Amino acid sequence: MYLPPESVAKFNKEVATFFFKKAMNEKEDSKLQTFCIDKALTFVTEADHLRMAASWIESGKITIEGEDLACELTNEHKYDILKRYYACDAFTLDMKKALKAKTLSDDQSDNAKKVSQICDNSLPDAALKEKLWNEITDFDSKDTLIQTQIKIAAFFQRQQQLELIKPYF
User: Fold this and answer.
1) What pLDDT score was predicted for residue 47?
2) Distances (CA, A) of 20 to 26, 40, 98, 115, 134
3) Nearest to 83 by CA among 109, 110, 45
4) For site-directed labelling of 157, which of 58, 119, 130, 135 has its Cα 20 to 30 A away?
5) What is the pLDDT of residues 5-57, one digit of tens each?
6) Following DSSP, what letter does each residue of 16-47 receive, concatenated?
7) What is the pLDDT of residue 97?
8) What is the C-alpha to C-alpha distance for residues 90 and 6, in angstroms, rounded to an integer?
9) Whole-Å CA distances, 22 to 17, 37, 89, 136, 155
10) CA atoms of 153 and 14, how far apart (whole Å)
């Protein structure tokens, strides 16, 4: 199925909203709530949804429309939120750094370190995209496979930064 680029933001918002509402309706089933939150986060690109999701990191619990959900906020949820928050141009660098500090302050895992690197390289900045592209496509690069994967993940923010990466298609 083809979705025109100009329709993606609206589609993402509607799908995320659907899954958020579904999670709220499943009060007795925390596993289904978790499933719905997992799916919703896949489509969260819009600033209001990102603000809400960032508030979960601040509070340590998932709250939608003033209602606390039974499901737990996992590290994977936090990582997904943080990466999307960093890629969004609606938030200042200071806001992004504060959320990263809150998210990763007690997490010294390899995944947390990767997420931190992805965030640092996924800022919506044309010069950064050019630098990453040159590093990714450098045949003489000494980067490890993991370093290259991190750079690719940071570069390819299609849902939030399509205009910045179009020159590289």
Assistant:
1) 95
2) 10, 6, 25, 24, 39
3) 45
4) 58
5) 788 889 999 999 999 999 999 988 999 999 999 999 999 999 999 999 999 99
6) HHHHHHHHHH-TT-HHHHHHHHHHHHHH--SH
7) 96
8) 18
9) 8, 9, 28, 40, 32
10) 24
Token couple for 158: 């299609």
Helices and strands counted in the chain (H then E): 9, 2
Neighbours of 90 (CB within 10 A): 13
Query: What does the CA dihedral 110, 116, 121, 123 come to, rounded to 10 degrees?
Result: 150
User: Look-up: residue for tokens 């928050």?
Assistant: 85
Q: What's phi and psi for 53, nearest 5 deg?
A: -65, -40
